[in-house]
Input
Amino acid sequence: MNGNQSVEPVVCPVAVEIGTKAWSALLEEVYTTPKPGLVDVYSNGAHTDMDLHTFEKSAEALRPYFIRMAEQGYLLQCSPEDLFHEIRKTGILAETAMYQATGGVNTHKGLIFTLGIFCAAAGRCAASGKNSYTLSDLFQMQREMTSNVLKKEISEINARTASSNGEKNLIQYGTAGIRGEAVQGYPAIITLALPTLLEGIAANHDWNRVKLQTLLTLMSKVEDSNILARHNQETLRAVHQEAGEFLKNGGAYRENALYELCQMDADYICRNISAGGCADLLAAGIFFVLLMNGIAK
Output
């Protein structure tokens, strides 16, 4: 089979497992509570067009597409770059399903891109004949799939063609957004999200607090495209400082941390701040923990 042919209507158990873990990661992210400015169990954060149920409906609509992208990785006999081109077609269908489920609200567009890539990469690694594969294998496959394609796309973006928030941010601020993360091999996941998640799990901390610690770690460092799109670099730097202070004072594991995060949530709602890019990276980190047989339950 070449990369231009469709996947046979056969559901691979491996693909179901991978895609279902992507779906679980979406739910694990939105159930993490309280998240400053973000949708969670307690509040809609700095959003008026979505709530917890919007995210649940979106996740359910996307589940079969994550399974399909994992299946494409497992079955398609094509180059990594051609695999990326194929799953992007599935990603467009996934976006349509998301918008239909949410009444036109963008809940998970960034994660369709990121988790779609890694579902396909995991499917390809699983089909490689190895009894098991490592995180290193996954990230290597991700780079082989995306690096050249996305570098070219980023180089061709200009003020006339920029349409998405990420592309407009590139023109205005020089930040490459989620495509830049992919080109670099997702350093925010490797150096921030995963180490924080695994450290919290190893210390047997409460799982919700582990996820909150990870989110605030990301918020203290990441060039969040959602914050830039809503505001500017000054606001982004303020979020970095505020999240950094929270971590410096003990982070999510101290006794009064949840109360402080609720206060931060109220403040971010008033200031219309939403670190949606960091939330996506948290979900991706959770996906890896689930995929590598972590204890996230």
